[in-house]
Amino acid sequence: MRVLSRSVLLLWIVAAGQIVATGFQDPTTTSSWPGYRGQNRDAIYPGTIRNSWANVAPMWKKKVGGGRASFAIADGRAFTIEQRQKNEVVAAYDVMSGQELWTSSWPERFSQWMGGGEGPRATPTFADGMVYALGAAGEFRAFEASTGKVAWRTNILSDAKAENLRWGMAASPLVVGDAVIVLPGGASGKSIAAYDRRTGKHLWTSLDDHTAYASPMLVTIGGVQQLLIVSSTRVMGVGMDRHQVLWEFPWKTDHDANAVQPIVIGDRRVFYSSGYGTGAAVVELTPAGDRFQVRDVWRNLRMKNRQSSSVFRDGFIYGLDDGILACLDAATGDLKWKGGRYGHGQLLLAGDQLLVVTEDGDLALVAATPAKLTELAHIPALNGETWNMPAIADGILLVRNTTEMAAFDLRPDSRKTAAR
Questions:
Q1: CA dihedral 24, 29, 35, 36 (to 10 degrees)
Q2: What is the largest CA-CA distance in the chain?
Q3: Strand 346-350 and strand 44-45: pairing?
Q4: Which residues contact 102 (CB under 8 A, 6 or more apart)?
Q5: What's the mean per-residue pLDDT of the chain?
Q6: DSSP E strands: which ranges in 35-113?
Q7: Left, alpha or beta for 46 (phi > 0: left; psi -120 to 50: alpha)?
Q8: How far apart are CA 287 and CA 52, in angstroms?
Q9: Which of 38, 78, 195, 344 is the most exposed place for a label (fewest CB within 10 A)?
Q10: What is the distance between the alpha carbons of residues 237 and 249, in angstroms, rounded to a whole number?
């Protein structure tokens, strides 16, 4: 049994020539945020944060390179990927001081003037002392987290003979056992690709889907561990052994802009949403032989997540419906409340509170309750358009956009919250 990080424990068993993954993630871990949207890519922080923000101010604030990536946090370090002039740059920072610890770069300058702007999109992933970073044009590198030394590199688009997306590669790498999984979107069985996380050697490829802007997830549905994948035309579960489709439901959005994460609800239900008038749905999956039958539970237009994923708590879904915060009953799709024009920002769940980063760069604290919209706090954080996902570990919140990044001490017992 190998410990991959403080928060991930995965055992790979080799049987009859096939590799089967079994494992779990510690839902109580607060000391790391190993990649996009946290421990399970569900944007849930299992710790508690301050509910009084009267004296909250940045611990530190500094310039950052362009791009829409967030942070991976581990061992007191934060890792992100930026655009600095003509180079994509992976950088490590000290969480408490903001001091730059190391950088590694390569020549690449991706830009899309209509949505996203300049720079890389995919949040790096930390696992077992390594950082995995994907550039906007497919450059994929593994680094020693302590030093920034490159362990290996490849280009996933070249490997899969795939074309880049209109808004660039955005799906964060997913580490599962000895594999790191990415979504190049190649044809001829190369839509999903797995590399040996230590050496970069090709392990396997699968499917023919054109990829989207959502990141792969490791989930368990109906007792079966599987990859939860969103492509440009469908949401699906992919088996861990033969990498075959276990279930699927069509999901087509204008501009192929499926850009948010699914939510697994209970043992056998999945929620998904998109913007551009597409709306949301919950489907139920019932095991049927070696696959699953799919049944619509509900579909409606009451939640339209354009680029900000929703979160789930105690039977209710909270998310930005075309920029307005809303709460839905997960069982029925009924709207409980809607209000608070936060724009196309991002949110995460901490205990019974929603931490919202607004599109304008503010921070808001909202009660995660279906009773009514209750904003508990609202403070400035960053200047300018902010689409990047926040990250939090040990009560220290990190936020960034295309020009600035900042840290906030939200620990419940914190006393020093003013700028340092």
A1: 90
A2: 60
A3: parallel
A4: 91, 92, 147, 148
A5: 92
A6: 44-45, 58-63, 72-74, 77-84, 87-94, 100-107, 111-112
A7: alpha
A8: 46
A9: 344
A10: 10
Tracing tokens 């920029």 back to the chain, one arrives at 323
Q: In what order do the strands lie in the sheet with 224-230?
A: 217-221, 224-230, 234-239, 245-250
Mean pLDDT over 10-39 rounds to 59
Q: Which two tokens stand for residue 65?
A: 């390179």
pLDDT in tens, 276-334: 999 999 999 999 999 999 999 999 999 999 999 999 999 999 999 999 999 999 999 99
Query: DSSP character for 5?
Result: S
Residues above pLDDT 90, as percent of the chain? 88
Let me know how many helices (H) and strands (E) the chain has, helices first.
1, 38
Alpha carbon distance 56, 50 (integer Å): 9
What mean pLDDT is predicted for residues 146-162? 98
Helix, strand or coil, per DSSP, at residue 197: coil
Residue 7 pLDDT greater than 50, yes or no = no
Strands (E), 163-244: 174-176, 179-182, 192-196, 202-206, 217-221, 224-230, 234-239
C-alpha pair distances (Å), 155 with each of 40, 138, 159, 173, 183:
26, 5, 6, 13, 12
pTM of the predicted model, to two decimals? 0.92
